[in-house]
Task: inverse folding
């Protein structure tokens, strides 16, 4: 359906989406430096993907990130979090330990600082973004099936 | 030194890890997913047993997440009672999972099995976390995780009853956790801490300064835990949720999930609240009377049920009352009984739900009146049912008697024989609704009228284990009782 | 008497061997009857042998056996001579019943279950009498109840199921009463040993005694707790009836004996125990016994079913035992005669009642007929049965030369002594009632004997009967036991019962007359003659005018008057409450399944209910509450219009209601907390 | 009394929000509105928490600022509430997905209508 409103929405969202994504990534990787972090950034990033899928259709959305990929990423993000915690144990400190486990702390205020926090935030970002996408797909697909059921 | 120091965190890490891993495993290496879940539950159980042994040797000890001590970091604390809870949770969930593997194939679609394992591991992980954590806010988060995943293992079976029941459960438990969070906010406002021990340290002063605040908080806590644990008038969600869920979920929910909240209330009452608060306002009285009403009404409601699983669910309302009675009686002996009942009921109610699951699996029957003569065709299942019911009634030789004995003794100890009467009356009511089922199942003259599938061995073995466990708990109760008595001394 | 302690595991083996045998026999396939019979035979023989082996130790002291860590309190066996008497009776009667089962049960179904539970019950009953503390006693008592339940409902027809469910519920109530009593006792004393403890019980002694009496009285069949007995004993297979009537009810008597003569006794010398309390409890027990005796005998006279006569006769004979015990209690340390009398009667009753049930069982086995009106003339067909039955009946009637005579004489004498010592008129009345009840006993046995063995043989039953050797053996042994005991009454008295009385601390002056008691002197014989004459006086006119066929009106039945309405009332109260509760609280217990979502959910529930109510009490409760249904419906409408909400929407899934409930509870708790706090 | 209340106005706002949420929960039959009400209730508690942690004139507790700043806002409630929000979001998402499925069965998300449909079956 190529109505005008549709076109406006599509073009705008196509224009805006990359910026949103970049901003999301920014928020994620600056989680230890400024307000924000894995959850906020992930939510922003995930919203951009949802935006694309909403303004176009499911196939286009799926080209960006498919349902399966999203759910695998979701598990992977959470697993990464747990593994980071376990790495600390392997390094001889407590679970989820940071400096005491010997993660490099870097210079305060720099991007690569705060040791494991950075990694954890990153994994969290992946997890949250993919969760939002998965939720979206789940609900949308449920709607689709309901059309058949009625 | 070494890996064993990290066991408290490793238990959680392993359970969370497997819960995130299992959808991936299920997608790529389908055969490995179920054994991996069992293996990790088993590993966690081994660690929990190790923790228990360690506590008996060195006493209470803490684990700081990330190496941060309490005011800043999250603290996991292990003492005898917590280790006991942990073992109960892990052992019973491992046992249920063995049964579930077969039953779920029948009750669920294949493609959601991986997600079921995820949710199951999440429920177990959150319960283990609730047993271990020493931080109010963590407790809140874990309660929410537990609530969502518990709802999800109901609604994963997509029929209407399950969906509605789990929606209702979700809303009510969200209200419950809302109340809990409000209570936590009030405690935080006056103490500035979340850690149990620190809160406990600062509360006596705070109670004197802001009594109203703490009164409100205590009421909120009771309602929050009461809703979650199905304390009597707040139990409304339970029968639907537990009856409509797939049988392993019912076993899990009735056996463990409601218990962990009772444990939470125990922690709040006896570890967080100062004695002066409990003495000045009748919190224990409220718990006592609510639980007594639950014991009586749960049994009475169960009597008129026609659906087997629904009857079991109502019976759970009565039985959770015993645990709360133990908490409310405020006496070491009674509390020992309550905690013992927690274990015994976890096993027997799970086993009864498994029996119901076997009956549904093999015959498709849910109505009680259709069960006449079923003992001839499903002997082991019905013997398991008999032993479970006997334990519910409190027949000697089963664990139910021991817990009732201790509860009643505790009630006498503090001079409240009325609760003994309630316990015994409820035993009678239990007999009235369990006995006819057993008698009809075994002694009816007519043949069983329905078609019966063969029972898979995988479903029978857990039942046999359960029978042995109940009889064992009834006969050799001493070690557990001693453990509980030692563990409860910390709180008095 | 110096009592020596022996530590031996024989009591444990004696209890465990039958139990283990029974469990292992259950796993044998149905077809291997020989193994099963042999297993039962040898298990009961082993128990008998073990009990006999214990005898020399018994005469010198106690045997202890302690299993620590078992069931929380440890399993504790302590066998003294009183326990031993019971155990010996149990194993002896069991041994004979097992042999009798071989021939009797060969035409029955479900033998695997029968033999397993038969022999299991043996272990449980032995556990009851060997138990050295109240907790062990309670455990075995309950196990005994549940395993004997299976024997009661063996036939599985409607009658058996009804009797069984009544038995089960009564027994569970009894068990809970026992548990409560034991809990209270433990709360008072801090231990559960069987030692005198009247002083420490304080204010709770009355409730403890009452609860114990309810718990044991249900098993013992004392009026008014006897209602299950005449239903349950006749429906069981005859060997099992023999055990139920001969042995099982003695467990109740054993409990009463242990409670009243050991627990409710002052501890040691110079204690300030409340003898008035002891006297009152004994006096009441005696009267319960007297009433039980008379009412049981009267009810037995009015029955026409042979096994039911025997069941009522059991109730009546339990009355004798209770009377003897009551006298022993209220006479304090002077009550040795009453005690020995009732212990003697327990032994005698076990033998002749088990024998009588076996003989009636033989008749039933051969003719498949229990009703006296359709039997008759069996004396010609089964001479041996007739002879043995006659001996056993003479025993129970208390004719000199048979065993019942000795024990009844002792109990009667104890009443006379009590009257002459205390001079209470009530005891005199009791003694007269005793005589009348004894006469009635003779009457109903004459009636029973006449109905079954004399008269014309009905045409249907007029053929030749042959009987297996084992059944003959069992009957002959029972008759021989009756005769031996009856002819040498002092033998057992001096060997077992007097030492038993010595354990309980009865004074020497009261024990003295029992040595060399002159049973066959003119004085006791004269009493018996009076009884026989009285019996003839009653029987002649009554049988001629057909008084024995009178059916008592329903309002005389305790079951109809008290025991049925009571649960009905309670249940219907709950259902009614349930109903109102339902209206007010939004039907929250209702079903969510598709097929149960009718608007009038509660009505639907009630209509389904009769099928799911498995016993009469439940069903009648349903009907009682059903009567009020219309009124309730109107009430419901009223309630609906009362709230400003539209009540129609308040169904199970109504979250509004649930949330409101939550808020309401929160509000109530807040209110309570604040009202107390400030 | 009134002045006390006025000083603690944020508590009052939080309680007001909580009551609004509860009222919506109780009176509205639309399931989605119920979920929204749940969120309002949660938000009330979050507000309360954050208000508890706030210090008048305090700055954001970021280490990059020069060290002469003395007053910091307590960061703990804020970060805890972030977790709380995550939890609330996940519950909302789950509740909404359940509502979608309930809609599939009944064709409506209104509670009264669901009851009506069920009573007519």
Result:
């Amino acid at each position: 359906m190529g109505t005008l409103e549709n076109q406006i929405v599509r073009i705008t969202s196509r224009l805006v989406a990359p910026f949103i994504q970049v901003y999301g990534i920014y928020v994620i990787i600056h989680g230890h430096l400024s307000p924000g972090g894995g959850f906020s950034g992930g939510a922003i990033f995930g919203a951009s993907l949802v935006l694309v899928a909403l303004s176009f259709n499911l196939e286009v959305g799926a080209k960006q990130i498919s349902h399966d990929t999203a759910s695998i990423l979701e598990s992977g993000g959470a697993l990464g979090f747990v593994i980071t915690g376990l790495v600390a144990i392997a390094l001889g400190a407590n679970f989820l330990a940071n400096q005491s486990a010997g993660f490099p702390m870097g210079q305060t205020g720099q991007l690569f600082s705060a040791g494991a926090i950075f990694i954890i935030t990153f994994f969290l970002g992946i997890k949250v973004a993919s969760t939002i996408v998965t939720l979206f797909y789940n609900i949308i697909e449920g709607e689709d099936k309901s059309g058949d059921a009625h | 030194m070494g890996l064993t120091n990290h066991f408290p965190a490793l238990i959680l890490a392993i359970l969370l890890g497997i819960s995130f891993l299992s959808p991936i495993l299920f997608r790529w290496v389908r055969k490995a997913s179920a054994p991996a879940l069992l293996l990790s539950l088993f590993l966690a159980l081994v660690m929990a047993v190790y923790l228990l042994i360690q506590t008996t040797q060195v006493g209470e000890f803490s684990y700081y997440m990330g190496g941060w001590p309490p005011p800043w970091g999250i603290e996991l604390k292990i003492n005898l009672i917590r280790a006991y809870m942990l073992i109960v949770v892990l052992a019973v969930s491992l046992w249920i999972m063995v049964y579930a593997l077969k039953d779920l194939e029948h009750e669920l679609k294949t493609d959601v099995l991986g997600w079921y394992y995820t949710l199951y591991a999440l429920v177990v992980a959150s319960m283990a976390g609730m047993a271990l954590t020493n931080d109010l806010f963590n407790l809140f988060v874990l309660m929410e995780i537990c609530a969502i995943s518990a709802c999800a293992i109901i609604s994963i079976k997509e029929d209407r009853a399950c969906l509605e029941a789990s929606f209702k459960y979700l809303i009510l438990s969200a209200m419950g956790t809302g109340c809990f969070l409000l209570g936590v906010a009030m405690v935080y406002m006056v103490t500035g801490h979340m850690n149990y021990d620190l809160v406990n340290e600062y509360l006596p002063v705070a109670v004197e300064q802001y009594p109203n605040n703490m009164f409100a908080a205590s009421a909120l806590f009771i309602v929050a835990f009461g809703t979650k644990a199905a304390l009597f008038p707040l139990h409304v969600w339970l029968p639907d949720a537990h009856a409509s869920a797939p049988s392993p979920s019912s076993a899990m929910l009735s056996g463990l999930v409601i218990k962990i909240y009772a444990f939470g209330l125990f922690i709040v009452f006896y570890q967080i609240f100062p004695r002066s608060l409990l003495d000045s306002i009748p919190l224990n009285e409220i718990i006592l009377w609510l639980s007594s009403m639950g014991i009586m009404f749960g049994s009475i409601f169960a009597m008129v049920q026609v659906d087997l699983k629904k009857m079991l669910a109502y019976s759970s309302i009565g039985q959770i009352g015993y645990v709360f009675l133990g908490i409310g009686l405020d006496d070491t002996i009674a509390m020992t009984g309550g905690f013992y009942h927690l274990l015994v009921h976890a096993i027997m109610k799970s086993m009864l739900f498994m029996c119901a699951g076997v009956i549904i699996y093999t015959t498709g029957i849910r109505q009680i009146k259709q069960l006449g003569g079923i003992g001839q065709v499903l002997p082991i299942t019905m013997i398991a049912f008999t032993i479970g019911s006997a334990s519910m009634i409190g027949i000697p030789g089963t664990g139910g008697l021991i817990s009732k004995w201790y509860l009643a003794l505790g009630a006498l100890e503090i001079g409240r024989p009325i609760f003994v009467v309630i316990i015994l009356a409820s035993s009678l009511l239990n007999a009235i609704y369990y006995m006819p089922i057993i008698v009809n199942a075994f002694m009816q003259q007519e043949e069983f009228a329905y078609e019966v599938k063969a029972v898979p061995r995988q479903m029978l073995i857990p039942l046999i284990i359960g029978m042995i466990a109940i009889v064992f708990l009834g006969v050799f109760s001493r070690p557990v009782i001693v453990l509980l008595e030692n563990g409860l001394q910390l709180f008095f | 008497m110096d009592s020596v302690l022996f530590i031996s595991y024989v009591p444990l083996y004696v209890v465990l061997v039958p139990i283990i045998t029974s469990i292992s026999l259950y796993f044998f396939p149905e077809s291997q009857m020989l193994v099963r019979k042999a297993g039962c035979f040898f298990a009961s023989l082993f128990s008998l042998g073990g009990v006999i082996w214990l005898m020399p130790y018994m005469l010198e002291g106690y045997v202890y056996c302690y299993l620590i860590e078992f069931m929380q309190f440890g399993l504790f066996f302590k066998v003294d001579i009183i326990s031993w008497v019971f155990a010996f009776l149990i194993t002896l009667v069991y041994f004979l019943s097992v042999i009798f089962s071989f021939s009797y049960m060969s035409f029955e179904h479900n033998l695997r279950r029968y033999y397993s539970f038969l022999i299991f019950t043996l272990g449980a009953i032995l556990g009851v009498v060997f138990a050295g503390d109240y907790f062990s006693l309670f455990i075995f008592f309950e196990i005994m109840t549940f395993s004997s339940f299976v024997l009661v409902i063996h036939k599985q027809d409607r009658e058996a199921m009804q009797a069984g469910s009544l038995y089960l519920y009564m027994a569970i109530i009894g068990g809970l009463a026992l548990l409560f009593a034991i809990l209270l006792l433990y709360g008072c004393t801090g231990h559960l040993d069987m030692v005198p403890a009247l002083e420490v019980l304080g204010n709770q002694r009355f409730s403890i005694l009452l609860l114990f009496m309810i718990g044991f009285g249900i098993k013992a069949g004392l009026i008014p707790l006897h209602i299950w007995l005449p239903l349950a004993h006749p429906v069981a297979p005859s060997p099992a009836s023999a055990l139920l009537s001969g042995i099982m009810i003695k467990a109740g008597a054993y409990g009463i004996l242990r409670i009243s003569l050991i627990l409710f006794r002052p501890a040691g010398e110079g204690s300030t125990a409340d003898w008035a309390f002891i006297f009152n409890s004994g006096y009441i027990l005696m009267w319960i016994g007297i009433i039980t005796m008379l009412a049981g005998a009267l009810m037995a006279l009015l029955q026409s079913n042979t096994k039911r006569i025997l069941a009522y006769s059991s109730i009546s004979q339990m009355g004798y035992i209770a009377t003897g015990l009551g006298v022993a209690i209220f006479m304090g340390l002077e009550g040795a005669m009453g005690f020995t009398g009732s212990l003697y009667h327990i032994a005698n009753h076990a033998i002749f009642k088990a024998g009588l049930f076996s003989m009636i069982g033989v008749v039933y086995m051969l003719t498949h007929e229990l009703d006296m009106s359709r039997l008759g003339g069996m004396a010609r067909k089964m001479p041996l049965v007739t002879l043995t039955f006659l001996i056993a009946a003479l025993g129970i009637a208390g004719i000199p030369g048979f065993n019942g005579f000795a024990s009844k004489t002792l109990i009667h004498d104890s009443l006379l002594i009590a009257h002459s010592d205390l001079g209470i008129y009530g005891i005199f009345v009791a003694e007269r009632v005793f005589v009348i009840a004894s006469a009635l006993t003779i009457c109903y046995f004459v009636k029973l004997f006449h109905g079954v063995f004399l008269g014309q043989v009905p045409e249907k039953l007029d053929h030749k009967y042959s009987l297996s050797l084992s059944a003959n053996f069992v009957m002959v042994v029972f008759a021989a036991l009756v005769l031996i005991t009856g002819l040498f009454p002092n033998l057992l008295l001096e060997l077992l019962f007097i030492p038993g009385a010595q354990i309980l601390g009865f004074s020497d002056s009261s024990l003295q007359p029992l040595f060399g008691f002159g049973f066959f002197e003119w004085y006791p014989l004269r009493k018996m003659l009076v009884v026989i004459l009285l019996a003839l006086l009653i029987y002649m006119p009554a049988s001629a005018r057909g008084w024995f066929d009178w059916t008592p009106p329903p309002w005389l039945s305790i079951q109809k008057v008290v025991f049925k309405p009571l649960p009905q009332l309670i249940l219907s109260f709950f259902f009614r409450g349930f109903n109102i509760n339902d209206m007010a609280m939004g039907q929250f217990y209702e079903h969510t399944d598709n097929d149960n979502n009718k608007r009038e959910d509660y009505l639907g529930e009630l209509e389904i209910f009769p099928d799911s109510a498995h016993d009469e009490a439940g069903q009648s409760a349903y009907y009682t509450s059903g009567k009020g249904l219309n009124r309730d419906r109107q009430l419901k409408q009223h309630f609906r219009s009362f709230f400003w909400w539209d009540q129609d929407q308040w169904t199970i899934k109504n979250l509004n209601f649930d949330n409101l409930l939550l808020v309401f509870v929160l509000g109530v708790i807040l209110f309570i907390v604040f009202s107390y706090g400030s | 009394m009134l002045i006390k209340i006025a000083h603690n106005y944020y508590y009052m706002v939080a309680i007001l929000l909580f009551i609004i949420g509860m009222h919506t929960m109780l009176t509205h039959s639309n399931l989605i509105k119920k979920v929204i009400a749940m969120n309002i209730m949660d938000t009330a508690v979050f507000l309360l928490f954050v208000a508890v942690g706030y210090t008048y004139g305090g700055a954001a507790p970021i280490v990059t600022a020069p060290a002469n700043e003395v007053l910091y806002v307590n960061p703990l409630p804020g970060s805890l509430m972030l977790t709380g929000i995550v939890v609330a979001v996940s519950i909302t998402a789950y509740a909404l997905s359940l509502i979608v499925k309930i809609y599939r069965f009944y064709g409506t998300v209104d509670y009264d209508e669901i009851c009506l449909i069920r009573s007519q079956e």
Summary: DSSP finds 27 helices and three strands in chain C. The beta strands of chain C are 4-7, 61-67, 75-79. The longest helix of chain C spans residues 158-189. The first strand of chain C starts at residue 4 and ends at 7.
